[in-house]
TrEMBL record:
Domain of life: Bacteria
One GO CC term, this protein: plasma membrane
The protein's name in its UniProt record: MFS transporter
Keyword annotations: Membrane, Transmembrane, Transmembrane helix, Transport
Organism: Companilactobacillus zhachilii
Location(s), subcellular: Cell membrane
Membrane topology note: Multi-pass membrane protein
Length: 464
């Protein structure tokens, strides 16, 4: 039972690791594949886009045909995608591999929690969820650090090669050890119209951002792409309100505390991804550190996160998740302000301390207890899926916002459009970094305001 938990959790670890580990390899990829920085960032973003588009689909499909079947298929696709990425000689082939990886990761992520619920009795389920969450999130936050260490000794291909034996082992283990599911479904019922509108809304939104980075956000094609995304969101909401079996029961958003908790989680995860995207360039290219040293410095974030998360969990039991999250968001704000003023000779020890505070702030933000705590009993399953969805959308938006604000800040300094690392003008990059972290700070302030509102609603509810 516990070995099965670690098998499924470790697959989630690898898939979330792959979502973040590529960031530290972007400087190497831009050189080896001879592509500008904004094109190389597609390698990160396309993975998130596929997960965001398909996560809800596979979750609902697994309810009908079986969690384990979908999980095992996802393991196969993720492993094949990793092989394609590892052997990729060009950017287009690498992107195809990342699409296959994202397709498989969406299947496994959507079914992971369902498998835990299937194999554990009720009295052990909470502990199993906690272990699963910690292992999975470790993959997300340790990616840049681990990637830096790998790249210090090996080529970027190895960040994908390491997935292959793990994927094979997990699949073989699952074939013999996972419990059998007896589900006979003659007709698969699904909200295909809602799924299509939702997938197109997500896809066109991110495509619009990437196009805007290349040709400018005022371009008619970019504006038209965003227009299509807006129309698809309107269609999606209309369909969900009128279809018999909706993809998402929109009634769940009538709970203001739950809705604000989901939005604040999305914002905080967006801010968290700024470091993954920007810091490898600051340390490797701007400060001329080795990838090994970059990895070691960036490991401060996951180490602090791992320590802060369980401690914050203990405080949550005593003071509730909203109060603990609010305190940690203020801690989070300190390093963000520091990074808006960082220079080319900032002390690396103090810099590492600031990254440690980033990890503490991120780990101490109790998003899952907030979301699940405010969700009514009848919506616990939906709330869990939405928590995963908003987390992944947040990370995807974080990649897009970090790169867009970085390029915009560099372009302001250069008085022309800049979408690559300016080797001959490092001051442009520093200006872009300052601007990017100013936007991150503003996003965090919005998250703090939302949590304040949740806290006020809590107090009003207690008075009543």
């Amino acid at each position: 039972m516990w070995l099965t938990l670690f098998a499924t959790s470790f697959m989630s670890f690898m898939q979330l690791l792959d979502a973040s580990i590529v960031n530290v390899a972007i400087p190497s990829l831009t050189k080896d594949l001879h592509v500008p920085m904004n094109r190389a960032e597609w390698i990160v973003s396309v993975y998130f886009i596929l997960i965001c588009m398909l996560l809800l689909f596979w979750g609902r499909m697994a309810d009908q045909i079986g969690y384990i079947k979908i999980f095992q298929m996802g393991t196969i696709f993720f492993t094949i995608g990793s092989l394609v990425c590892a052997l990729s000689p060009t950017l287009p082939i690498l992107l195809i591999g990342r699409i296959v990886q994202g397709f498989g990761a969406s299947m496994s992520m959507a079914t992971n929690i369902g498998i835990v619920a299937m194999i554990f009795p009720m009295n052990l389920r909470g502990r199993a969820y906690g272990i699963n969450s910690i292992i999975a999130q470790l993959g997300n936050i340790s990616g840049p650090g681990l990637g830096g260490l790998i790249l210090g000794f090996l080529s970027w291909h190895w960040i994908f090669i390491i997935n292959i034996p793990i994927g094979i082992i997990v699949y073989i283990y699952g074939r013999f050890m996972f419990p059998k599911e007896e589900r006979e479904v003659s007709i698969i019922k699904y909200d295909w119209t809602g799924l299509t509108a939702y997938a197109l809304a997500i896809g066109t939104f991110f495509v619009g951002i990437f196009m805007g980075q290349d040709i400018g956000f005022g371009n008619i094609a970019v504006l038209g792409t965003f227009g299509v995304s807006l129309i698809m969101w309107i269609v999606f909401i209309y369909v969900e309100k009128h279809v018999a079996s909706p993809l998402i029961d929109l009634k769940i958003f009538r709970n203001p505390r739950l809705t604000l908790s989901l939005i604040s989680a999305l914002l905080v995860f967006s801010v968290g991804y700024y470091a993954n995207v920007i810091m490898p360039f600051y340390l490797t290219d701007f400060r001329s550190l080795s990838t090994t040293m970059t990895g070691l410095i960036m490991m401060a974030i996951p180490f602090a996160n791992v320590i802060a998360a369980p401690i914050a969990g203990i405080f949550t039991d005593e003071f509730n998740a909203t109060n603990v999250s609010l305190c940690n968001l203020f801690v989070y704000a300190i390093p963000l302000l520091f990074l808006t003023q960082i220079s080319n000779d900032s002390n690396l020890i103090f810099f590492t301390v600031m990254l440690t505070l980033l990890g503490i702030g991120n780990g101490g933000f109790q998003n899952n207890p907030m979301i699940m705590g405010y969700a009514p009993k009848e919506y616990q399953g939906v709330a869990g899926s939405l928590a995963a969805l908003f987390r992944n959308i947040g990370m995807g938006i974080g990649v897009s916002l970090a790169t867009t604000s970085l390029y915009y800040g560099m372009s302001l300094k250069a008085n022309r459009t800049v979408t690559d690392y300016p080797k001959n003008n490092p001051g442009w990059f520093l200006n872009g970094l300052h601007f990017a972290y100013l936007t991150a700070f503003i996003i965090l302030v919005i998250a703090i305001i939302l949590v304040f509102i949740i806290r006020r609603i809590d107090k009003s509810a207690k008075v009543e």
